[in-house]
Amino acid sequence: MVTPAPRLGHIERLVDAIDLPIGRWDRDARLVFCNDHYLIWAGRRRDELLGHTLQELYGAAAWERAGLAFAQAFAGKTVSYERQLRHGPTLGHWVRIQVFPDRDANGQVESVFTIATDIHADVVAREALQAAQVRLDRFTDNIPYPLTYVDRDFVLRFVNKAYTEATQQKAEKLLGQHIGTIRGARRWAEHEPYFQRALLGSTVQYTRLVTSLPQGPRWMRTSYVPDLDDAGQVVGLYTVTIDVHELTVAQEQLRRHAEHDALTGVLSRRATMDRIEAAMADAVRTPVALFFVDLDGFKAVNDVLGHREGDALLVAVAGALQQAVRADDAVGRFGGDEFLVLATVRDAAGAQALALHMLDAVRHASEAGALSRTLRRSISASIGYALATTDATHPLALLQLADDAMYAAKRSGKNCARHCGALSFEATR
Hints:
Helix content is 45%, strand content 25%. It contains 17 helices and 15 strands. Helix 13 packs antiparallel against helix 14 and helix 14 runs antiparallel to helix 15 (348-368). The radius of gyration is 44 Å and the shape is rod-shaped. Residues 1-8 and 423-429 have low confidence and may be disordered.
């Protein structure tokens, strides 16, 4: 037994209960029924709508968008299309119109229904996303720094124009390949540890001097940035490589200025103390001696010849001390005419021998300058020294002992060296 189709009045009452604008159109695309919500949506009375075609009601542009959908619905299909409203209280809003056939008891399509859904927020968001994507694509293509994106297996999924130019390969040949294959075994071995660390979830940076560039060696920095999903899991990595040559050179110059004495070029006081602290931490395995060197008779040079000649003497003495020790040892200016020398030694006897050697170096430095014979005879050094960890286990304690020993050397007649733990070791010249 076939259940009879409900009377149209029942359907229309049901449609009126649905909170969406619904209309029914005949084969001539004339509106033959609409619910109350449709009236609000259209912004017109019912008698102004019924009996009129869609084109008459909303214009040729609206019918151009709807015509194909109507034809397909009359052919038995359910279809939809989108258009921007030019009427009613939601003027300018984007809507999706669903068109579906209204079949009679024999299955014939004599009319079609339309249901309008407001999708304005979705369309605006979609257009904003598309516009943002266009801007992003334009930015990534024009930025002069190579950009890449790799998945967790380090397979390239995105490269920008700068990267293709740097590798001299087209994007279609790069994408889908392991980045290690692109970079080569040597460079991949260099960069892989940073990729692996970034996979743990933190941004990693690697700065190195690149010597293969057309413009010559440049300092470059690559950042490896994790791409996290909504659950906080790393699904890939972004990399960006930028030129930091000028910045790196400037930072190195600042570091050198901070670490070196501006006049003599030897280490600054702060840098010397840092070296002492580091050496003390390793002194159990590698004994070191700290020498406190103070010039004798320096004030007379400034008083007689002026500070210019005094500065020249300090430069000469600093150079002589550096020549007297090994390259791994440290020479620093403590202040005024005082120098610190940190040197690796075997034992106290070795330290004493080095102290005597430095006394000779200071004497030769003064003789090589433009000092008068009288002033030359007055220039010497008083050196005090202490050994780590035999004499002290703390940097400041070691410095204090070396300073005390230096003053003991001065009291002993100057131009001599004294170990803080012995009576005296003199080498008067």
